[in-house]
Amino acid sequence: MRYAETGYQLEIDLSRGNIERVETDPKLTELHLGGLGTNAKMLWDRVPPETDPFSPSNLLIFSTGLLCGTPAVGANRTIVTTYSPQTLLMGYSMMGGFFAPELKFAGYDKIIFRGKSPNLVYLWINNDKVEIRDASHLKGKGAVETAALIRQELKEPNAQVASIGLAGENRVYMASIEHGRSSASRLGLGAIMGDKGLKAIAVRGTKDINIARPAEYMQLCNDVLQYIKVRAPNLIPEVMPILAGLGSPQEMVHYDEKWHTENFMWGNARTRRKDFWNKEVEEKWKETQERVRTRLISCYNCPMKCGAIISIPGISTYMMKCFSKLTYTMAAYSDLEFGFRIAQRATEYGVDGFSTPQVMAFGLELYEAGILTDRDMAGMPSDNEGRFYWLLDRIVRREGIGDVLANGTYWAAEQIGKGAEAYAHNNIKKHEQLPLKLGMLNPIYFLMYCTGEKGNITQIEGNFPQAPFSTMELKEAFVKDWVQAPDDKFKKYVLDWEMRGERSMPFYPPVEACCEIVDWQEKMHHIDDALGLCAGLSSFPLKPPYHIHNLPAFISAATGMDMDEAGLTQIFNRNRNLVRAINVRRGLRRADEKPPEDHWKKRFPELEEKLLDGYYKFKGWDLQGIPTKETLQELDLAYVAEDLEQRGIIKNEQG
Amino acid sequence: MSKVKKKVKVIKIDLDKCNGCRACEVICSAFHATPKYSNNNPARSRIRVIHDPLRDIYLPVYAGEYTAAECMGRDKYVIDGKEYSECDFCRASCPSRDVFKEPDSGLPLKCDMCEDDPAQEKPLCVQWCLNDALVYEETEVEEEEKKEVKQEDVEIGLESMIDKYGMQKVLETVARMTKKS
What we know:
The complex is a heterodimer of chains A (655) and B (181). Chain A is of the alpha+beta class and 655 residues long. In chain A, 40% of the residues lie in helices and 13% in strands. In chain A, strands 2-1-6-3-4-5 form a six-stranded mixed sheet, sandwiched between helices. A four-stranded mixed sheet of chain A has the order 8-7-12-9, sandwiched between helices. Chain B has 181 residues and is an alpha+beta fold. In chain B, helix 4 (153-165) packs across helix 5. Chain A binds chain B through residues 69-71, 73, 98, 101, 105, 144, 148, 157, 180-181, 205-211, 214-215, 217-218, 225, 228-229, 232, 294-303, 305, 309, 311, 316-319, and chain B through 16, 19-23, 26-27, 30, 33, 35-44, 52-56, 58, 103, 128-131.
């Protein structure tokens, strides 16, 4: 019997309409756990590096994490993996919600799509019965609407649905995969789904998920639940309200947006409005939020309430989470009412709430600068908000200028030329980032921005404070019960770190410490992504319930495998290096690893080089960020080293 | 007849506080697994969150008695502008729907307030509901003494089998199985 996992995956060939249920090799679970780890393994093995993201041989993998469907609180993430049409690198976006547990209960750990369907279809998984169904009647329908229509026609209100909207159908590079209150938004995975002719996946499962050591596992789950009860209301002082507790940023709960509106940039990641927040704005926005927010809601088996149902009279109800609350508002220099309204349309279209508003603001900047002309914008309304709706409609339909903007700021700028490149100023690896522009270089964040391969800072930052605490009392209070730190030296970094003076940024923490801090934070994210745990209870907040000291016990008790911290770290390093190798094989090099040029005002080129050198060395990579032969061999990845050597990527002299 | 004091166990369900996470279903199915906690499967849970997020419907309902027949009509209730089917509130394991039945055998499920061995201080669904949508209360009532016959699980299961296949068929099957063993 397999524990925690089902031991089966679905292989769907959309070109031939073939469906296979395939037993998986338990050895792969021992080596990579599941989720992101086994996805990376599959992508490496089965999709050659020269494959175009829109080629039928590109795979689109929907994977559960190893602990999804077990009683572990917050183990509900679906990890979607393919080659990204935008970055051309490995794209792995994730979503919470209810999809992954349902898939497990149906009896599958993963669904792997290959090929392309000649007609629009959807996949219906009802335990052992799996069928590819016609979706021509769903063409052009909204993502939320599609889910409702599918449940209706299947007469299965408990089916969980992941779907794309118009943006995915039209291969828009910002297209998301939507699933109720959640979405896999980043890196354009919805475009790959659309390219494969797959409108949606519906799943219903009523089978058991088994646990190897039940009593022990339940004790661990109960401990986590008890910890959440104590930690969630105990906010960490001096940390902004949305990050002081647990969960993903509590945007649906909080009204106070002083920090975001005054520190994040408005427009195309352009303008800081230092005195924006005042009593009047606060009251107005609070009124808006309270009026449209019907209920705070959760993902599967999680007490946090990071999402909300949004009902605005006259437009259909949708669900929202996290920071998309402000991205449209701030891109358009508008108010919260506009943000909630346009997000409804954007959710139905199925687009990434981070990239899309920036792309639209970028288009308008180009127009104001005369780079885009009245001819490009023929038909655009004159009012500000109207322009955003107009642009959104053009982009998801790929009409006129929308066809260019639909590829994101990097590719659009390249196509438009005439100096447009300078306006695509907020990207890393061709992908739009949070509109954050700061003063002093933060060495830890420098490394995370440069080397993170998920394309989003929130997917690598987390367990270590973003900035030093202001007083020794606060520092001491913070480290006192900091059980999550891997060892005591991290406590020392917090205690020694100061706001100014010798032990302040950018030279403190020192290079070596920065490497350790970044590596630890990334490790926690990677483990979450393999286990299917929500970062909001693990790698993202300070002092989370899951950490490096209790996760090995979870894995052991759930699966029966013997796992300790060293073993888990080894798996992290293996998975991390495999992801790196996949991207290196697709051309990723040191030159690509840089933050947006204007992210920090005060830059330190010499220090930055030292940081990258140090970090690469720490990771066992060469000066180009390529894993060395020894590193790969130590991680049972000799076959990867061999491949990289054959391709001349690992030069013989390196080894 | 004499009066006796009886403890009544109550779970207060606050629909406004339900965040739809279904942790109650998770822990219920895990607790009632054999061996305990060895598996979980919300489809076996004795509590279900009837949910339809877009209509803002979040309604935890507990499994009650097994019934062989379905209702003649299906009424609708409108509460606070939201329409509920009468079935949404119904605790019965009945032929009209899949809810409160073992997914493989179809045998009926019934909430036992976690009095299963070992009896829990509070039902586990309540313990796992950190949002207080489920709150446990005990009250005492005085009522006339009557002989209470507690139906065992096997009996409830058999009853449903008899309803489904007929007494004769069940007897024959049991007889045949007895011979075999």
